[in-house]
Design brief:
Layout: H1 15-22, E1 29-36, E2 39-48, E3 51-56, H2 60-73, E4 81-87, H3 93-98, E5 104-109, E6 114-115, H4 125-143, H5 177-190, H6 195-203, E7 211-214, E8 223-226, E9 229-233, E10 240-243, H7 245-251, H8 259-268, H9 277-293
Antiparallel strand pairs: 1-2, 2-3, 3-5, 4-5, 6-8, 7-10, 8-9
Helix pairs in contact: 4-8, 7-9
């Protein structure tokens, strides 16, 4: 599922080496920027055919571990990590401040195709049915990975949850979904959410759910396709072991509910098994995100 790869270069270890690599405009394509203040820094860059660099902060190691876990345990197309996460070497702090780069990166194979969000409105009904069928099989395979704890693939507590700030992440794993729900109740209470809102959210989150492996951000931006063929799933930053309803709720993120995506979701989940949980969880996560990052 990956592109042919040119290995005729050394992965940079310093800012100077990275700057030289990115200067080659004939082979470098910036796929995504990370907006910072009035400027922008590269987030995802194609540096050679088949080779992607993803830049970030100092916590990319967790994303690499998540990607490797998913690739080793699932029979679905997932990028292969080519270079583990590393911090770029800067001679001094001023060089970092003026570099125009995020301070760390890792390298991975590029998955063929384009992200689903860029073509979803152009797909035929047959294409959407095919993609939905492939998504159902992927979700089935992911659901076969079980754990008796809710937490990260490392076996410890979650290292990232979409919408939740790093400084309030759980300090330990959860043994039950009830403990998982209570964590969010405490979080909402601590940040002074109205009690009536908290009770309404909590009443929509069941405690009798099973625990399953979850991508955590399985949205059109992270689903790669070529026509009607699903060629890969990318960005495993938020994966881990969550209640079974979590994936469904995240896939129904209101920011991504285009007509085409709703049509595909209707084919993937014709019985809408988590219709109550999805809006409550989306509201909770989006509101917490605004609280932490506004």
């Amino acid at each position: 599922m990956s592109c042919s790869i040119d290995y005729h270069f050394k992965f940079p270890s310093s800012f100077v080496e990275m700057r030289e690599l990115l200067k080659d405009s004939s082979s470098v394509t910036i796929i995504q920027f990370d907006a910072i203040g009035c400027g922008a820094r590269p987030r995802v860059v194609r540096v050679r055919p088949g080779v992607i660099l993803k830049f970030g902060d100092y916590f990319l190691e967790d994303e690499v571990t998540n990607t490797q876990y998913a690739r080793e345990n699932l029979d679905i197309p997932i990028p292969r990590v080519l270079q583990p996460a590393q911090k770029l070497r800067f001679d001094d702090d001023s060089e970092l401040a003026t570099s125009g780069l995020l301070p760390a990166y890792y390298a991975m194979e590029e998955i063929r195709g384009v992200s689903l969000d860029t073509v979803i409105d152009k797909l035929s009904p047959d294409d959407k049915r095919s993609i939905a069928s492939q998504l159902k099989m992927i979700l089935r395979d992911m659901g076969a990975l079980k754990s008796d704890k809710l937490g990260s693939v490392h076996g410890g507590p979650y290292r990232s949850i979409r919408g939740i700030a790093e400084w309030v992440l759980p300090k330990e794993t959860f043994s039950t979904v009830a403990e998982f729900r209570d964590y969010f109740r405490r979080l909402l209470t601590e940040y002074n959410f109205p009690l009536a809102h908290i009770d309404k959210i909590m009443s929509a989150i069941p405690t009798d759910s099973s625990i399953r492996f979850t991508h955590g951000d399985l949205l059109p931006k992270n689903i790669m396709v070529e026509g009607s063929k699903l060629t890969g799933i990318i960005d495993w930053t938020y994966c881990g072991f969550f209640p079974a309803f979590w994936e469904y709720a995240r896939m129904y993120d209101p920011d991504w509910l285009s007509e085409g995506w709703l049509e595909i979701l209707g084919l993937v989940f014709p019985e809408k098994p988590c219709a109550d949980e999805a809006p409550a969880i989306s509201y909770m996560l989006n509101t917490l995100h605004r609280t932490f990052f506004a």
